[in-house]
From TrEMBL:
Motif range (Histidine triad motif): 98-102
UniProt name for this protein: Histidine triad (HIT) family protein
InterPro entries noted in UniProt: Histidine_triad_CS, Histidine_triad_HIT, HIT-like, HIT-like_sf
Domain HIT: 4-114
Catalytic center residues: H100 (tele-amp-histidine intermediate)
Gene3D superfamilies xrefs: HIT-like
GO MF term list: catalytic activity
Length: 114
């Protein structure tokens, strides 16, 4: 499949991988927007948040969030706080069409988002 993140999962394209289990992979963003900026992706290709199916995908999406919290704790900024973001389609700013959770930490973030 012609998908950048599937290729990272398959080790066809290198990435700085920080966590892996049977269901998810986490790696450092190539263009970090915070001292720590990781992407957490399901190993199964799901193009957008609109494509999540009730039958079969809900536990996987929960696992993305659970992994973000675990990595935030490992990185030492769980208590200070952090930002998780999932962008969907054009207006949401999605550029890679394989769902991913951004985990950003190590600085204070503003709200609302731009
Ligand atoms: P989106 O804009 O779809 O929410 O996020 C895509 C993210 O993927 C961006 O933050 C971008 O910096 C990151 N990215 C794009 N290409 C690569 C790559 O080849 N390797 C890594 N590690 N990150 C990438
Ligand atoms: Zn993919």
């Amino acid at each position: 499949m012609d998908c950048l993140f599937c290729k990272i999962i398959e080790r066809e394209i290198p990435a700085d991988i920080v966590y892996e289990d049977d269901h998810v992979l986490a790696f450092n963003d190539i263009n970090p927007q915070a001292p720590t900026h990781m992407l957490i992706v399901p190993k199964r290709h799901i193009a957008t948040l609109n494509d999540i199916e009730e039958e079969g995908d809900l536990a996987l999406v929960g696992r993305l969030q659970f992994t973000a919290a675990k990595l935030a704790a490992e990185q030492g900024f769980a208590e200070d706080g952090y930002r998780v973001v999932m962008n969907c389609n054009d207006h949401g700013g999605q550029t890679v069409y394989h769902i991913h959770m951004h985990l950003m930490g190590g600085r204070r973030f503003t709200w609302p988002a731009g």
